[in-house]
TrEMBL record:
Chain ranges of the Glycosyltransferase 2-like domain: 6-154
Keywords, comma-separated and alphabetical: Transferase
UniProt similarity note: Belongs to the glycosyltransferase 2 family.
Protein name: Glycosyltransferase family 2 protein
GO molecular function ontology, one term from the record: transferase activity
InterPro entries reported in the protein's UniProt record: Glyco_trans_2-like, Glycosyltransf_2, Nucleotide-diphossugar_trans
Organism for this UniProt entry: Brevibacillus panacihumi
Amino acid sequence: MKVAIGVLTYKRPDGLKRLLAGLELLTFEKACTPEVHVLVIDNDPEASAQDFCLQRQESYRWKLVYSQETRRGISHARNRALALGADGYDGIAFIDDDEEPAPDWLDQLLFVQQEYGADVVTGPVLPRMEEPAPDWSKKGKFYERSRHPTGFRMELARTGNVLISTSLLKNPTNRFDPRYGLSGGEDTHFFLRIRQQGHEIIWADEAVVYEWVPASRIKPGWLLQRAYRSGNTYALCERDIRLPAHRLLLRAVKGVMRIGWGMLLLLPSVLLGPVRLIRSLQQICIGAGMVMGLAGSRYEEYEETHGV
C-alpha cells in the first residue's frame, strides 16, 4: 500500500511546521503501515515554503516532496497534488496547513476504506482556538461541525480530512474546478460529481483532524461571511452540474425561505442575546448566498487568507 498525503500551503510557515511534525507521529495498528509520501504544494508565487521543506527532506520520517503551484487558487494547488499522486499510489489523502492530525488519523481512514470498500473516506475536523474563545462562540458551538457514526454514507466530503482512491483519478474529469479556486467550494463541486458517478463516500468518525482557528476568524463578521459563502458556493455547484430545473427552483425557494425565517427571528433574537442574533443573521446570509449563487454571482472568500 502506497499513500500520498497532499499538503496545501500558502504563507503559513508555523502551521506547515506544526502539520509536518504531526504527520511524523502517525501510527498504524488497524491497517498495515503503508509507504507514505508527503506532497507539499506551495501556492505562494514566492515559494516561501521551499527552503524549509528542502531542509526537512533528508531527516524527515516519510518521503517529503516539495512542489510549487504558481497559479493562485486552491483548485490549482489540489490539482497539482492529484497530478503528482495519480500514478503509483493507491490513495491520496488531503489535509490543510492550518490543521494537525491525531496520531491514528491515516490508520483510521485506511481501515475504514478497506472495511467498506469505499472510494472516498472522510472524517471529523475539530476546532482548536489559537486564543481563548469568547463565551458566545462556545455557547453557540459555531466552530463545531456535525459528526456521524463510522460507516455513515455521506453526500459530500471536505478536503481538510479525506482519503481518495486514486482509481477515481483515471477519469480525467475528476479534478477540482479552477473557477472555485478563490471562492472555496471546490471540494463540494468535486464530491457532488463523484457521487453523481455512483461512488460512495464513507464517514470515519475516529479519523480525527484538528483545525487551528486564528483570532481573525473568531468574530461574528467572519461567521456571517462564511455563511454567505457556503450558501453561495453550494448553489453555484448545483447550478454548474446542471441539476433539473425543479431542483434549482427548490433551492431558490429554500434560499428565500431562509432569508424570511432569519428576518422573522431577527427582532426577538436581539433581545435573546448574541448567540440567537448570530444564528438569525446566518440564516439570512446563507439564503442570500443561495439566491445570488443561482443568479451566477460568485463570492471569492479566499482573496484573503487568514492566519498567514
